[in-house]
Amino acid sequence: RLLHQHRIEKLLVVDEAYTMCGLGGEIAAAIMEHAFDELDAPVGRLHTEPVSHPVSPPLEDATVVNAERIAAAARAVVEGVLDRLPDAAAVYDREHRLVTFNEAYRRHNAPIADMLAPGRSFEEIFRTSVTRGQYPEQPGDIEALIAERVAQHKRGEGTFKRLRPGGDWALYRYFPLPDGGSATLITDITE
Q1: Following CA atoms 128, 163, 138, 104 in sequence, which dihedral angle do they give, to the nearest 10 degrees?
Q2: pTM of the predicted model, to two decimals?
Q3: Is the pLDDT of residue 24 over 80?
């Protein structure tokens, strides 16, 4: 019940050893044997490729676990979770730059989908959304609207509803993340 107590539903075990006979393999096997029902997916594993240890730096980078491979594997786990959500979802880093998002987020932001990319700032994304007519219900000072929404996003908190240009209602929620970033969830609440 340890996984359930800590709300762990996805797990990635990283080990510099080979797939077989390493501590990471034993940990993954024990979790799969004793806590499989608590997970939403099988335990992910990242390990050194089963080849002789290379002496060439480029070959070593391609076969041995390193920070880039760990980040890519962790990102794949997060993206797998986001893609299973029915809501539009995005993750921003502590600098308020887009890290990743799901297909529902792209669809929700169809008028600006061409500029949704990791590394773009929330302010740039929101400003583009406003200038492309996605906030016609907000007459008046556009800069004040942008400043207000950016400040709300930077606080990593807030919930609001709005009628979108197509006539559907959406509930927007910002959540702070432990690393200083934030998550955005957008739910269609049209009845």
Answers
A1: -10
A2: 0.67
A3: no
